Amino acid sequence: MDSQPITLHQRRGSIRSDGRRDKVRVADVHGRFTKWRKRAFLALIVIYAAAPMVRVGGKPLIFLDILNRRFFLFGRTFNAQDAYLIFFLLAGGVLAIFLVTSLLGRLWCGWACPQTVFLEGVFRPIERWLEGSKHEQVRLAKQPMNMRKLRILATKHAMYLVAALVVSHIFISYFVSLEQLREWVFVSPREHWTAFVWMAAITGALYFDFAWFREQTCLVLCPYGRLQSALTDEDTVVIGYDAVRGEPRGSVNTPGAGDCVDCFRCVEVCPTAIDIREGLQMECIGCAACIDACDDVMARIGRPLGLVRYDSLTGLAGGKTRMGRAKIYLYAAILAVLAGTGIVFAYQRKPFEATLIRQTGAPYVLEDGAYRNQYFVHIVNKTPQRSTFEIRAVLPEGATAILPIPSVELDSLTDQRVPVIVSMPADAYEEAGDREDGSGNGSDDDTGYDADDNDGTFDVVVETRDRSTGLIVTSQLQFIGP
Ligand code: SF4
Ligand code: SF4
After folding, report:
1. I need a labelling partner for 327 at 20 to 30 A (CA). Which of 76, 141, 291, 476 fits?
2. Shared domain check, 213 and 309
3. Is residue 196 part of a domain?
């Protein structure tokens, strides 16, 4: 078993063939992509933290209240009955990943994944600030423990813990209301043990991930990297090395050498410790650090930039990249259909539900010479505000309805069952049945009786009206007699 440390020149990623890991210490890099990534990270940290806090129409921009089975997205309110819309969201998300990855490789991983954003935007800068450059970090690691090292390590891990605590609260705020979260923060853990344990577990997992596990999350845990080989092709724009121009490698003055001076700067800055010159690899998260590192080297030795660059394998081999391909059109078409259908469904979705349901027990009773059916209307207020709903029964001649609660006021995302009792005099019911039997043609007459069943049954229609908007939702069920 190899117990010697692997040198930079032998390195092929941070995980050795025997499963052990070499800690990756990343060299500083400057350049246009690094500058844009820093801006993107800052913007994304603000967006990720603010999304559950920003209010649209009085509701959170994003809040997945799983405990109460209600969801707030972009100011709109959804409940469990809207779960079918999740299909369009998830399927659309998967198709969007397919499309973007086929076109632009792992753009998401390098620029927007929270793992990258918080590691490169928060935790690595803390390490750099306290421990210095890559070489200073290596020197510190090799030193025996002394007061200075102890102070640096203690400060670093304390800052990591605070950062993990903040990130865990950001994460939890997507699933727990801000009011609840605030209460948990300011009262003793003894009053909310379960929530406290969850928070501690998430903080611990984040600390472990960002302080130590780091790139292994991308290499070992995340399935997306493994999808790469299935989704990319020769025309996908990835980060690649121009072997035509770069090989054979050699120092600046080596006769016949290509442009690559074999300086290993591209490897030194790589957060997954791979060598981009070995081609497209599963470990490459598309961070573009190697582009900036190599461009810097090329600028210093007066050679054209772009030896490592965003390009397709076809482009790197000297060919012309085809952005429009059959699979791109297919993904785009399916995505458009999914998005269109999802938008139509979301648009047609009623802001409240009113469903007529038969009460349990006997379907009808005969009382005081009349048949009686008992129902209730189940009203769910899906609007973001408190609303009043008025209930009205539409019945054929002779039938009467009793509505003990003709209007109800419901808070947002609450529901209530409102009783509806419908009676029909027995002789009128039976007479209607006789009339239907006699007609024999199954057609409706102007009394509203349903002729299909050839008896005295009819439809009980209940209209529920939102008083503030005037919107009416109709629901109906058959009246049942003997
Ligand atoms: S090979 Fe380049 S783009 Fe890929 S992870 Fe390493 S530095 Fe980033
Ligand atoms: S940074 Fe550029 S020149 Fe240096 S080893 Fe990498 S590809 Fe070659």
Report:
1. 291
2. no
3. yes
Q: Taking the mean position of all CA atoms in its chain, how far away is CA 243?
A: 38
Which atom of ligand 1 is nearest to 276's Cα? 1
Rounded CA separation 398/402 (Å): 13
State residue 433's pLDDT score.
66
Judged by DSSP in three states, 380 sits in strand
Residue-level pLDDT at 340: 94
At 455 the pLDDT is: 63
State the alpha helices, DSSP H only, in 105-133. Answer: 107-111, 114-118, 124-131
**Looking at ligand 2, which atom is closest to the CA of residue 290?**
1
The torsion angle over the Cα atoms of residues 97, 102, 106 and 109, rounded to 10 degrees, is 0
How remote is the CA of residue 407 from the centroid of ligand 1, in Å? 63
173: nearest Cα among 79, 45, 58, 51: 51
Q: Measured in angstroms, how far is the CA atom of residue 267 from the centroid of ligand 1?
A: 8
Mean pLDDT of 309-319: 95
Q: Which protein residue's CA is at the shortest distance from atom 6 of ligand 1? A: 270
Nearest ligand (C-alpha, residue 241): 2
- Asked if residue 372 and residue 260 are part of one domain, the reply reads no
Which residue range forms the structural domain that includes residue 221?
A: 8-231
State yes or no: pLDDT of 463 exceeds 80. yes
Considering the domain architecture, whether residues 68 and 186 belong to the same structural domain is answered as yes
Last residue of a domain, one of 200, 216, 231: 231
Q: Which ligand is nearest to the CA of 225?
A: 1
Cβ of residue 34 lying under 6 Å from some atom of ligand 1: no
Tell me how many domains the chain contains: 3
Instruction: Verify cis geometry, omega within 30 degrees of 0, for the bond prior to 114.
Output: no
How much is the pLDDT for 3? Answer: 46
- Of 316, 341, 365, the residue that ends a domain is 316
Same-domain status, 299 and 432:
no
Both 264 and 214 in one domain: the answer is no
Q: Whose CA is nearest to atom 7 of ligand 1?
A: 270
Whether 208 and 246 share a structural domain: no
**Which ligand 1 atom is at minimum distance from the Cα of 269?**
7
- 462 CB within 6 A, ligand 2: no
Residue type, 233: D
Ligand 1 binding pocket includes 26 (Cβ within 6 Å) = no
